[in-house]
Every structure is written in structure tokens, then in C-alpha cells.
Specification:
With 470 residues, this protein is mostly helical. The protein folds into two domains: 6-80 and 89-241, Alpha Horseshoe (Serine Threonine Protein Phosphatase 5, Tetratricopeptide repeat), CATH 1.25.40; 242-284 and 299-338 and 356-452, Alpha Horseshoe (Serine Threonine Protein Phosphatase 5, Tetratricopeptide repeat). It is built from 18 helices and six strands.
């Protein structure tokens, strides 16, 4: 019996309806669709790669939020979200091991097939380059989010149609996979540049249309935004008191080519879009049932707005008190998320709420971090204060507040936690890369329930990925 391993599994093209656009159902197409492609199937597959990268993004946000102590899913009929995930005991089982693994790897493989298919059809050179640059950028986003969840990952994804009896190798260390993702973004940027400034030659959902990410030039700005995120993570991850200044400088260079702009709305950026329409994908983070709750320590630790008794405006915009108190295995909260349910970034809300890929607000905070660790303390302070004043309605900091590295990191973690709350596992990633997961664990003394549960550093690899390697 031949074994199929998850990073290689499936040939589904995942080109079903993409939010608010309708395309043919290529969920399970004949294999010849991309082996012997037509212009139509190539363009539909490109839209499908967008559809594929949003699959399970809500899972990524929810699970990363639980691990980062941002919020919880308190369902009395499914307590594994508490006894397994919150408690820091994830295993390689289907529940935790396969979470946010199969889907992104499947989409990466689909993008590989798409890139190979582009050269088999009659399209202008500019359109071919545009599709390749787009596909590689989306692949990098998928790889980045997998990298954020596991310690070591495979970066080889097979595009042949045969099942394999051995899994692809894991990288020797995380530096190898970081370099791979960074290089993939650079390849994508080169392709986008070779295309010139042209419209992306396939159907685009409103999450990209909303702020004009429909051309190669604008998509290159997304590519550089992701590049900046990657370089900041590379620069800081487990570096202690010796961050990688060269990587931070690379992040600053990438940000110059991104869509960072203090004159743009903080919500400016590309989004994943969803809908409750038949055959489409709904955003399950929208939860009127009240089971998706915010960590009770968020309100306790939130700073007070300048000249007011109100808490941080970011917290008040994304959460609210609830008359219903949800409790599972002692873990409890009376605060629920309104984000995605009644207060989306744009659009109708509810299960059609969009989830950001990356926003202007995050880019400003990435620049603050990169500026500080490249010696530009005044620039870093200016960026932190721009977010504090305009997003949190808080009093600005002064230089003495970030006089030491430890003080700056604490200030940065606070701003990122409340600015990016429940948008993409940010707190889990941030506290881990700076070596402060113990601080998230210490919140147990301020939380209703939860005891002394540990924060898992990583999700495990799926069992069917680890067993063949033993």
C-alpha cells in the first residue's frame, strides 16, 4: 500500500467561487486541466490560488489566537480547544497535527502546477510573468503561515501526479526555510517587474479590489509588505539581545516598496474575502453564538485613552462585554469578539467578513521595530506614537519610555497585541520570537480559569508526516 503525505497530497485546484466572484468549479478537475491547459483553465486556476490561500485562514487566526492568549473557543461539546490547545498539549492527531497543514500545502502545489502551465498556453509575455509573480507571492504567504505554526517544515512540494512513498525532507533549521520564503518573494517580485504595470489577467475578489490591488504594480507592494514581515521575523526570532541588524535593514528596504503610508487608512491593504453563499467559504470567526470569546486579561491590561476613563480604542472596537459568561473546564470569559461579527474591516459583516492579509497598521509597526534595531530610535518612537494616538487613542510615549531594549520590546508587544488582535496569530508569534511566552503563561494569575496551563511553542507535525521519518 502506498502512502500519501500531506504536503504532496491532492491535485485539487481549489478554484471554486472566490468570495464575491463566480468562476467554474475546478474543485476536482480532470488532471489534464493543467497538464494540457487552456488560457481559460490557467486564468481560472489563478483565481483558484486566491481561493486556496483563504481556506482555513479563519482556523489559523482562531488557533493562533488561542495559543497567543488573545481569545478562545469555549464550546462545551468540544473541549479539546481548552484541554488540548489552550493547555499546551497539542499532538500529531487530526485535531491539532493536521490543523493548518494540508490546505496550504495543497495550495502551494496548485500554484506550482499553475506556474508550469502558464508556459504551455498562448498568452502575452506580460500576462505570463504577472501570473507567475502572483503565484509565487501567494505561495510565500502560505509558506510563511505554515512556518509560523511549526518548528521545522518541508519546503519541497512535489508537482508530479504519482503518490510518493517517502515524505519530503524537513529543513535542517529554520534559517533555511526563512531564506527559502524570502527568496520566493524576490522571485515573485522579479516576475511582477518583468510584466510591467498591467492588470492581473484573471478574476479578482473584492478583498483585493477594495484598495486597488489588481495590477502587477500594486501586487508588488503586497509582495514587499510580506517580504518586510518575513525579514523582521528572521531578524528577531530567538536572537535575544543580538538581533540581526542586516535583516532589519532588509525589512526597511522592503517597506519602501510596500504600501506603507501614514496618509492612508490604517485598514488599507489586501484582504481575504468570504461569503455565506452556497458553494462558497464562510468566515467562521463570525460567531453570534458567543463561543468565540476574548481573553479576560485584555481588558485588565489595556491602557486608558488619553483624557478619558475608556480603555484602549482598539480593544473597544474589536470586543465588547457580554451578559453571557462562557465557561469550559474552568476557563471563562464574559467578553466576546465583535470583529468579524458586527464590525468588519469593510463589507457586510457576519460570515462574509474579510480577514486581512496585511494592513498598513502592521507595516507601520514593522517599521517601528526595524527602525529601533537599526539605531533610529526617534523614527521608531514616531511610528509607535502614530499608532498609539491614531489607533488606540492613547497618550504618546517619550524617549525615556523606550530607553532600553527591554522597554522598547514591551512597548512594541503591547502595540502589536492590541492593533493586530485576532487577525493572524500575531501575539503568539511575537511573544515567541522575543522569548517571552512565559509572560503569556503568567497571565493565568489574572484570568478567570486556566490555571497554570502552558503555551505551546509550536503545533506538532501531523502523525503521518512524522512516523515515516522515524
Amino acid at each position: 500500500m502506498r502512502t500519501r503525505f500531506l504536503p504532496l497530497a491532492g491535485v485539487a485546484l481549489l478554484v471554486a467561487a472566490c468570495g464575491d466572484i463566480t468562476v467554474p468549479d475546478y474543485e476536482n478537475p480532470p488532471l489534464d486541466d493543467l497538464l494540457n491547459p487552456t488560457v481559460q483553465t490557467v486564468r481560472a486556476a489563478a483565481t483558484g490560488v486566491l481561493q486556496g490561500t483563504r481556506q482555513d485562514t479563519d482556523t489559523y487566526v482562531r488557533w493562533g489566537g488561542i495559543l497567543g492568549r488573545e481569545g478562545y473557543y469555549l464550546d462545551g461539546n468540544e473541549d479539546r480547544y481548552v484541554r488540548t490547545l489552550f493547555a499546551g498539549n497539542p499532538s500529531g492527531s487530526n485535531f491539532t497535527g493536521n490543523s493548518y497543514w494540508t490546505t496550504p500545502f495543497r495550495n502551494i502545489r496548485t500554484a506550482n502546477l499553475l506556474i508550469a502551465a502558464v508556459d504551455k498556453v498562448e498568452l502575452p509575455a506580460s500576462e505570463k510573468a504577472a501570473i507567475k509573480g502572483f503565484a509565487r507571492t501567494i505561495q510565500a504567504l502560505d509558506y510563511l503561515q505554515i512556518q509560523n505554526t511549526r518548528d521545522k517544515i518541508p519546503v519541497q512540494v512535489n508537482t508530479s501526479l504519482d503518490s510518493l512513498t517517502t515524505p519530503p525532507p524537513l529543513v535542517a533549521n529554520r534559517a533555511e526555510s526563512w531564506a527559502f520564503i524570502s527568496s520566493l518573494l524576490d522571485q515573485g517580485l522579479a516576475d511582477l517587474g518583468a510584466a510591467g504595470d498591467v492588470e492581473l489577467p484573471f478574476a479578482i475578489p473584492s478583498g483585493l479590489v477594495q484598495f486597488g490591488f489588481t495590477t502587477t504594480k500594486k501586487f508588488a507592494e503586497l509582495n514587499r509588505a510580506l517580504k518586510a514581515r518575513v525579514e523582521v521575523y528572521r531578524a528577531s526570532e530567538f536572537k535575544g539581545d543580538a538581533p540581526d541588524v542586516a535583516r532589519y535593514q532588509a525589512a526597511l528596504t522592503a517597506l519602501q516598496g510596500s504600501f506603507l503610508d501614514l496618509n492612508r487608512p490604517l485598514n488599507y491593504g489586501p484582504y481575504q474575502t468570504y461569503s455565506a453563499n452556497s458553494g462558497d467559504v464562510a468566515n467562521t470567526l463570525s460567531d453570534p453564538s458567543g463561543k468565540t470569546v476574548a481573553d479576560s486579561t485584555l481588558i485588565l491590561r489595556a491602557q486608558t485613552q488619553q483624557g478619558s476613563a475608556l480603555k484602549d480604542a482598539r480593544l473597544l472596537a474589536k470586543t465588547e462585554a457580554s451578559a453571557n459568561i462562557a465557561t469550559v473546564r474552568g476557563l471563562s470569559s464574559n467578553r466576546v469578539f465583535t470583529l468579524y461579527t458586527t464590525r468588519p474591516f469593510f463589507g457586510p459583516g457576519g460570515t462574509s467578513s474579510p480577514i486581512p492579509m496585511v494592513r498598513n497598521e502592521e507595516l507601520i509597526l514593522l517599521r517601528a521595530e526595524a527602525r529601533y534595531f537599526t539605531g533610529d530610535v526617534p523614527g521608531a518612537l514616531a511610528d509607535l506614537n502614530f499608532i498609539r494616538v491614531n489607533s488606540g487613542h492613547l497618550a504618546p510615549l517619550v524617549v525615556a519610555d523606550i530607553d532600553t531594549r527591554a522597554e522598547f520590546v514591551q512597548a512594541l508587544l503591547y502595540e502589536r497585541r492590541y492593533s493586530l488582535l485576532f487577525e493572524g496569530a500575531h501575539s503568539w508569534i511575537d511573544y515567541r520570537r522575543f522569548g517571552f511566552l512565559v509572560e503569556l503563561e503568567a497571565l493565568a494569575t489574572q484570568r478567570v480559569g486556566g490555571g497554570t496551563d502552558k503555551v505551546a511553542t509550536w503545533l506538532p507535525l501531523p502523525s503521518n508526516e512524522t512516523l515515516p521519518r522515524q
